[in-house]
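User: Here's a chain of 452 residues. Predict its fold as tokens.
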Amino acid sequence: MTGKAIRFEKKTKTLGQRWFDLYAFRVGGPDSRKVAVLFSNITARKNTEQVLSEKARLLDLSHDAILVSDVQGCIRYWNHGAEELYGWSRKEALEKISHQLLHTEYLTPLKQLTEELHRTGRWIGELVHQTRDGRRVNVLVRKTLDRGRQGHPASVLETITDITARKQAEEAEHRIEVLAASNRNLHGEIMRRQALEESLRESEAHQTRLLEESRRMQEKLRQLSRQMLTMQEEERKLISRELHDVIAQTLTGINLQLAALKGQGRPSTKGLDHKIAETQLLVEESVELVHQFARDLRPPVLDDLGLLPALHAFMKRFATRTGIHASLKAVDNFKELDTAHCTVLFRVAQEALSNVARHAQASRVEVSLQESPGRICMRITDDGKSFEVDRDCKAGGGKRLGLLGMRERLEMVDGCFAIESTVGKGTTVIAHIPTGKNSTRARKPQSAEAKT
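Assistant: Prediction complete.
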């Protein structure tokens, strides 16, 4: 014998299959051969352990993870389902703090969870755990609180079901619902936009029709304006000829008759001679006024000799009447321009010079005519005060009507019109009109001036 105490458990057949705990130890000194043996009946405990072992075996058959922990969270039991779900073996998991091992994420505050568990003895809810390989799993946990004989909390049984697949399916279904709602909203938005586009197309078509109608009306107005200008020019021509050929000749005839009457008078008719002389003077003034009206309405020289002589004569009278130094510079020979083109250029120059006299406060004005391939350019430049072209063109009044008249006349012959006005440099009116193929020959420049 070694002298050391020994302890073992023994099941006896003779005593009805009972379990005993035997504890043997030496009694007396080291040389004593006496041995004392203590027997304890542990049959009830062994039966309980057997029942618990059987229950544990049955719990291992569960597909759910089952664990038991004390009130401090230290794991006391870890079944096979927990091993499969989390990856830790029973040996690795026992004695670990459950929420630390599993990195528990509480969807419900821990304090609220604990209070409910101690108040009702159970708690059911969802948590998020982390497995040994780092995966996050959604789990449904059923906690049951076990109380001891005195009613104090002793342990917590947790049954854990993996609901990760279900949660993923729910999330996928939610995403599908969200996408379906988005698709419905998108379809509604597409329909709304299509309706809006259709409305815009109809509105655009309506606007196009209105614009086209407006253009047709403008073109009709433009044609009417051109017809009126043409008729006005013809009327001026007729009135001018009537004044010159009929009324002026009649007045001249009256004056000749008065002169003859004066020559046949007697010495005693001095008073009558004086009256006749005054009448002759009035007749001569009337003749001059008639000629002036005729020239203003339609200068005969424009029809008889062409544009340059007509401009020269008009600018000479303009300089005499206004005191503004006026000069004309032009290329030689404008005979190839037809009457319509000559009339347009003359009327533009006439209106421009009238504006200079009325508004510019200028001391000099120059009219120049230049020819380039396919067109003739006329520029009327003064050294008077400038003006805001856009503002005056949009404003009302006679000045705007005069500018519009010049533009309209030029458009009648497919010409174009522009105005340049700069502070300190005066104003330039520019008129371009197209010419025929045979109007592109080079011509010698010629300068003509009409001075006061």
